[in-house]
Design a protein that fits this description.
The complex is a heterodimer. By secondary structure, chain A is of the alpha+beta class. Chain A has a five-stranded antiparallel beta sheet with strand order 2-1-5-4-3. In chain A, strands 7-9-10-12-11 form a five-stranded mixed beta sheet. In chain A, a hairpin with a 5-residue loop joins β3 and β4. In chain A, α3 packs antiparallel against α4, α5 runs antiparallel to α6 and α6 packs antiparallel against α7. Chain B is an alpha/beta fold. In chain B, 40% of the residues lie in helices and 18% in strands. A five-stranded parallel beta sheet of chain B has the order 2-1-3-4-5, sandwiched between helices. In chain B, α1 packs across α5 and α2 packs parallel to α3. The chains are: A alpha+beta, B alpha/beta.
Chain lengths: 554, 137
Amino acid sequence: MMDDQHPLRREGLLRRSAPFLAIALLAFAAVPLSSGPLNSPALIAAAALLALIVAAVVFIPWKRLPQSAAAVPPIAYFIVVALLVQTAGGGPSGYVPLVLLPIFWLALYGTRSELAVAMVAAFSMFVAPLVFLHNRIYSASELREALLWMAISLVVGFTAQRLVRTIREHAEETARRGQALLESEERLRLILETAGEAFVSMNSDGSISGWNPSAESIFGWTREEAIGRQLVDTIVPVADREAYKRGLEHFLRTGEGPVLNKAIEQMALHRDGREIPVELTISPLRVGDSYVFNAFIRDITERQEAEREAERLKDEFFALVSHELRTPLTSIMGYLEILTEDAEDNLTDEDLHHLQVIRRNADRLLRLVGDILLVAQVQAGTFTVTAEEVGDVATLVAHSVEAAMPIAEEKEIALEVHSEPVPPIEGDRDRLAQLLDNLISNALKFTPAGERIDVRSSNSDGAIVVEVENTGSYLPPEEQEHLFDRFFRASGAVRQAVSGVGLGLAICKAIVEAHGGTISVRSEEGVSTTFSFRLPVPELAESRATDHQRMEVA
Amino acid sequence: MTAAGNGAPSAPLVLVADDDLDIVTLVALRLKKAGYGVVTASDGEEALQAVLERRPDLAIVDVRMPKMDGLEVIRRIRADDESNGMPVIALSARVREANIAEGFDAGADEYVNKPFSPKELVELVQAKLPAKRDSGP
């Protein structure tokens, strides 16, 4: 309880009663000076009672008794005073200090109930002579005085009590807040102590001011050793020190710090000279006129190793796909070549047709392997295209259309090219041809018999635009946005059981983007679906646009 | 240079080294048909041994082989005084540019991706090493 925190309450009843007892003794000393007889029974009783109080205060284990027992000494004290008053005689005003001082004392250090009990005892002392002695000792003026002093005691006692209580509550509140602050600081400290990341803070003079256990284990310096050292000489690799110092100076001068407040990866120095990859976030904290820099630092050695391992596995996968699939394909296609060319004379037409089927499927398998590899390269960010002189894209368009013509005829689809003059560009001829083949074969897959496909190339705003438009199919907007994702297949493709794995358009997008261009699709229900891509043209090349040409096939 | 092998006595000799026997057979068949002598190997060590013992006029070496990989074989061929001028064609199923660069760095004259057309491979050999060179008038 809060009362226990006051030193006087803690230190027992002896100390608490000491003022009463001291005043009582003084009163005894004063009695002989007055006119009363020294051997009166009241005086002897008072002396005996005082001795009893002293003995009781000293010997009784008050702490084991209820709190209210503490009111006994004050009550006994007032009885002693009352007996003294009776012996010495005289008006009540002479005894006021004997009453007021203890009451004041209790107001300061006692509880409200102790004060109340003491007051009742003190008032009884004034009132008792009236009752028991039939008003023999009080004159009328003395009675008024007694009543006045009782009133004053009452007001002073409770006012002082209230004042003290207010002050004490305030003090306790302050102490509690201080405690809460300490606790929250302790919590923060514990969080930093137990954090898996290293926490390092630095003053603006570059000295280390904070260093948690994770920092100890990552950098090899103990907290005691690290605090006060220059951070730059402790954990910054030698090669980076100059740049680091310049950066700090620049920040202190201008308040600009491009590496602050965001996660950055760099090398850090271990005590043994090893350099370790770390990820860290530095936050400057303005404190008065200067800064404190706090950094959370994580050792990413393991993460980098895992990344390297993932990269290695990816490479292995590449090697597996390319070697394990392409090597058997080499044999299949090579022996097929021997069969179809050399043994042609010995084979029936049916045999030759079967060989063609094998050849076609081997080609398809080879294309698929190529597509998977290409998409994997795009994913890995290693897909590149060559930059050779491609010349007129319209020629590439014409070749692709020509190659697709037999299938278009077979499916009874009208396939037409409309070419405007386009400037020559640089790019990867094979990949651009693959792009056109993919778009046209895609259109062929989804165009019903009797409909048409139009392929247009044109020159628009410094870019070559190629469009492949087919009638008779529709792509809803929610499918359009995923169309260029790998392994995405439009619902129409699934419904119509159109062959494919969903790589074609992802590859188209990769090829177009590798050339710095864009690809898009638009579709209008009941009208047509159009895929178009734009390839940027270098400014000089534009003036060399070839003459207008129009080519119609089929 | 020694000219020996399964073809005509005077025919130039080509080493075909690949751990895939089907491919070795395929290429050998084509080369013999085109008038070359052929010596074969199914791993890197065998290939190097064949180069040192038979001194072929041209080598077709698969990059990925057991015991010693093809790039190492090519490097050793280039380090050998007698064979360092011999044309070498690297075969590979790897298509990444870095792999191709490795092949040329090791000392290959040509780099052929799998799957290849045997006919085109033979045409490439003929360009490097005419079959009738030694049997001319």
